[in-house]
Amino acid sequence: MQTRRFFRRRELWFRPKYSTTAELVKIIDSLSARHGDCVLNMMFHNVELVPGKSPYNNTEKDCRKHLGEIEAAAQHCLKNGFRSATLSEIYEACKP
After folding, report:
1. Which residues fall within 8 angstroms of residue 62, CB to CB, at 6 or more apart?
2. How far apart are CA 73 and CA 71, in angstroms?
3. pTM for this one?
4. Residue 12 located in a structural domain
5. pLDDT per residue over 19-43, tens digit each?
């Protein structure tokens, strides 16, 4: 019997719980290579960093790993020329 494999395209999220650190870095590199100015918005809930308060991180170890992934992505952004900004600063920069 012959089996077929169907490959689905997997969307990459700029969210540490849905993407690995390597995938977060891939997103950063892809956007910085293709766009001069761009805004990256990492999504996570504050309770994801508190053990047992979200369905994602049940232990202190889980939370430390999650925080490490956020830090690794932030460090990679800074290394590649991104800077942090508030939503108000982004709004002001994008006004016509």
Report:
1. 51, 56
2. 5
3. 0.77
4. no
5. 899 999 998 998 887 766 788 888 8
